[in-house]
Amino acid sequence: MLLDVGSGIGSLTFELLDRGMLRAIAVDASPAYVAAASQEAARRGRSEAIQFVQGDFLNVAAELPAATVVTLDRVICCYPLYEPLLDESLRHAEHCLALSYPRDLWYVHVAISLENWLRRLRGNPFRAFIHPPDRMRDVIQRAGFTLAAQRRTWQWSADVYVRR
């Protein structure tokens, strides 16, 4: 089973179901994203395979079962405190944790700062964050996971950890 934290409109959920995952729980705080993902699941004939949960993962996590694979695709950067999010995700991950996050590089900091400044000007309360990758890795490794794969772009890192 897949637990997709911050699933958005379900792109990663659908991709992993197409690649062999049998069931998924897709959690997102946005009612609009959950509605769009649910509509797309119906269009694809995947409604029976996906349970949609609307809410902040940290608020609904206690109600969710453990999963073989837990994903956090571009979610860490949405939380001011990454440790509680990682801790709860790791508690749910039976075998694998996959996450993507903005790289801790000067030009990424400039881009995120500019985006946050523009949001502030427009009255949008959302802020993005860049968390220290070495500290995130320490939290994950202390939970008994080891890095199995890593891919990077100029802005993003995508890491896959497996339970030792």
What key attributes describe this structure?
single chain, 164 residues, alpha/beta, Rossmann fold, globular
3D architecture notes:
- The protein has 164 residues and is an alpha/beta fold.
- It has one domain (2-103, 130-163): Rossmann fold (3-Layer(aba) Sandwich).
- Helices cover 38% and strands 29% of the residues.
- The protein contains 6 helices and 7 strands.
- The protein has helices at 11-18, 31-44, 57-60, 82-92, 106-121, 133-142; strands at 2-5, 24-28, 50-54, 67-73, 93-102, 145-152, 156-163.
- The protein has a 7-stranded mixed beta sheet, with helices on both faces.
- β6 and β7 form a beta hairpin.
Short description:
Helices cover 38% and strands 29% of the residues. The protein is an alpha/beta fold and 164 residues long.
